Amino acid sequence: MEKLPILPLRGVVVYPLIGVTIDVGRPLSLRALLAAKEHETDLIVVTQKETGNESPEPEDLYAIGTRVHIAKMSELSNETLRVRIVGKERVRVDSIESTDEGWFANIEPVELTEGEEVERTALVRLLKEQFGKLVANIKGMSPDERRRFEMYERLESLTDYITSKLDVDVELRQAMLEEADAVKRGLELLEIIAHEVEVIELEQEMRERTKKSIEQAQREYYLREQMKTIQQELGDQTQESEPNRLREKLEALDLPETTRKNVMREAERLNVVPQTSPEYAVIRNYLDWFVSLPWGIETEDKLDVKHAADVLDDDHYGLESVKDRILEYLAVRQLTNSLRGPILCLAGPPGVGKTSLARSIASALERHFVRVSLGGVRDEAEIRGHRRTYIGAMPGRVIRGLKQAESKNPVFLLDEIDKMASDFRGDPASAMLEVLDPEQNVSFSDHYIEEPFDLSNVLFIATANDVSQIPAPLLDRMELIQIGGYTEHEKVEIAKRHLVPKQLKEHGLKKSQLTIKEDALYEAVRRYTREAGVRNLERVIGSLCRKAAKQIAIGEKKRVTISKKAIITYLGKPKYRYGKGETEDSIGAVTGLAYTAFGGDTLTIEVALAPGKGKLQLTGKLGDVMQESAQTAYSYVRANAERFEIDPTFYERQDIHIHVPEGAVPKDGPSAGITIATALISALTGKKVHRDVGMTGEITLRGRVLPIGGLKEKALAAHRAGLTTIVIPKDNERDIDDIQETVREKLTFVPVTTLDEVLDVAFGGN
């Protein structure tokens, strides 16, 4: 056993017959070099287990090292020596002693196993073949070194040389040094080389792909530059790149900081995604929508209450309650300048001017106007938009309407809000809750835009025909304004001020060519239309204009004047009978008053008796509530038969048939209760009911009369039908003031609390 100086190495493993140049600077290592030089002996080099350890102990070194010969040593600056050492053999370190000259190791050679000659020869060939594939890709090797491995014929020397040139970690290098069996070392080295070859092939493939991608990008860049040059030569204006155009528009928007960061992140993605990718089109469409929205763009309200009143009066006759509400809003806004836009719901029958009123409000405020029709909308995404993950996704109708308005404070008309429906795609009425909630719509989030948009300054106006079809949570968020039907006088005034001039213009007629007298307009209202609004009246006036235009065009007349007597010539026979509800007092026939989504109407309820066994038959397409009212009235008459001087056994000997004409039209509601009871008693007693009396009210089993709704519309219907007396519940007496004065003057209202009071009015002296 020999005793030689030992030099610890960090991150370096030295193999026999392989020369290595190292820099030595640690005091312990310097003493080992000086001792070997002074005693003219070889040196033992051993690798540390931990590379970062500056002051190793003997136990921190591997047990197997290499005996080396110092070929050359030169001094560098900073007390560092550069040494060229050449390995001689593998040695095992049995113990290490510390002396004044440094560490000395007691060593003995490692016994090597050679194996069979055939295996060794085969491994040498395989190693040369495989390493030959790899050697060209090893960095730092000169051409001479790359050919040197072919000179080795012994397996031990070849494995040591190849291992020293591979870029593998220290632990694997040390394991190859410690392996005494040359055949095993060769087999392990084959696996290492195969792995390295596979890694290099994958790197080359990736490098080739990257090169092709770069070449394609460069080609596209050159083509675009050439296109720009050609456009410039041809005098075309050079088009700015799409990402830069969108980025400039985004930077010009007045956005919250969080929103700006999110959308700019999308804009940066546009630079990265290839233009041929489907994702590019999705991002570009999104950004196009984003920059087209009116972020921070508002129109300045014209807060002049007098001007607004003049505009509303010029555009619409009547509708005083709606006009007052708008003027109140303007007055408060003028004083505070910070009031959020109200959410109004204009409810009333068709043709009374709900949509045109919203346009007039926008005109009075000098705001932009946008209309969205909600009739038949069944998909929640129509309101809140689609997610961008869907093909063909787009924002909802609210955001699209704001884009159309080009301002964030337009007058936004939600037309026919009562006609939304729900199915498997969601409930759009529920999606409207956030839009119409003043506490939430300050940060309305559309599924497509995904960023909060402030709707608090939008003046939302909804229209509806039937308020009962609007869900209660949605109705609670809106300020309901009921618009009743028009009286005859109001319809004629609307026709003179608005409808006739409009139709003359549309039909190319001048005022001097066609004159429609006032009595002709009254005749048109009474006998050719029966409606709460004026839509059909406008059609009738349009028909008069067309017929007059024909006469003028063929030269038959130069000027046409239409009077009450002449109107039948143009419109034909009257469609409706104007005057009394009934032509004479009748037994078992009573005029009732009904309220529908199309306004008020009159219904004649008829009762017929026939011999039988007390069967009660109801016809006229009555709803459940109206059938129950008939059952209630029937039970009340049976219970009080003697008091009304009716045979108490009538229900055993007579069948009773209750019919409401116009059987094709569905009818429902409790307000026909007293009408049915009166008709029953009239038929059973033989007393006639006055033809000019109409009635409405719900009846109980005790004969009490309960309040109803829609009194204003019912009074207008009674007025149109020519009735003079209306029997109403006592609790509805407070609603009389809402009826136009011209109607109140021609009607006598009789408030009642019991059916006896109703009968006194209905039968009178009969």
TrEMBL record:
It comes from the Bacteria. It is an enzyme of class 3 (hydrolase). Its EC number is 3.4.21.53. Induction: By heat shock. Its main location: cytoplasm. Residues 584-765 form the Lon proteolytic domain. Residues 4-197 form the Lon N-terminal domain. It catalyses: Hydrolysis of proteins in presence of ATP. It is found in: Cytoplasm. GO terms for molecular function: serine-type endopeptidase activity. CDD domains: RecA-like_Lon. ATP binds at G348, P349, P350, G351, V352, G353, K354, T355. Keywords: ATP-binding, Cytoplasm, Hydrolase, Nucleotide-binding, Protease, Serine protease, Stress response. It holds the Pfam family Lon_C. Transmembrane segments: none annotated. The active site is at S671, K714. NCBIfam families: lon. Homohexamer. Organized in a ring with a central cavity. ATP-dependent serine protease that mediates the selective degradation of mutant and abnormal proteins as well as certain short-lived regulatory proteins. Required for cellular homeostasis and for survival from DNA damage and developmental changes induced by stress. Degrades polypeptides processively to yield small peptide fragments that are 5 to 10 amino acids long. Binds to DNA in a double-stranded, site-specific manner. Belongs to the peptidase S16 family. PANTHER family: ATP DEPENDENT LON PROTEASE FAMILY MEMBER. HAMAP family: lon_bact (MF_01973). This is Lon protease. The gene is lon.
